[in-house]
Amino acid sequence: MYHEITQRELRNESARVMRALDAGESFVVTRNGTRVGELLPFRRRGLVSKASVLAAFGHAALVDFHRFTVDLDVLTDQDATPRG
């Protein structure tokens, strides 16, 4: 649910608005009765459980690290001589 606040309220009560945002509240800001913007709390990312990671990557192909480094060397320019 959004709380509607005016531009003046946002300016004069910014500390209260910031505390409310931190607590998860959302706001619609109005100017002269017209909606001009939204203030939404930042979505904090939580930790992902080990079980979720294992389920997501459990069937992934194994990586041959030697082959991987060879492929990288082929694809990247490792020449250290100056150009120009």
Written overview of the protein:
The chain has 84 residues and is α+β, with helices and mostly antiparallel strands. The chain has four helices and three strands. Strands 1-2-3 form a three-stranded mixed sheet. Strand 2 (26-31) and strand 3 form a beta hairpin. The longest helix is centred in the last third of the chain and has 11 residues, at 65-75.
Shape: elongated
Order of helices and strands: EHHEEHH
Poorly predicted spans: none
The fraction of residues assigned to DSSP E strands is 15-25%
Counting DSSP E segments of at least 2 residues, the number of strands comes to 3
Separation of the first and last Cα atoms: 61 Å
Helix content: 40-55%
Structural class: alpha+beta
How many helix segments?
4
Q: Strand order, main sheet: write it out.
A: 1-2-3
Q: Quick check: average pLDDT?
A: 90
| Largest sheet data | 3 strands, mixed
Cα-based radius of gyration, to the nearest Å: 26 Å
Short description:
The chain has 84 residues and is an alpha+beta fold.
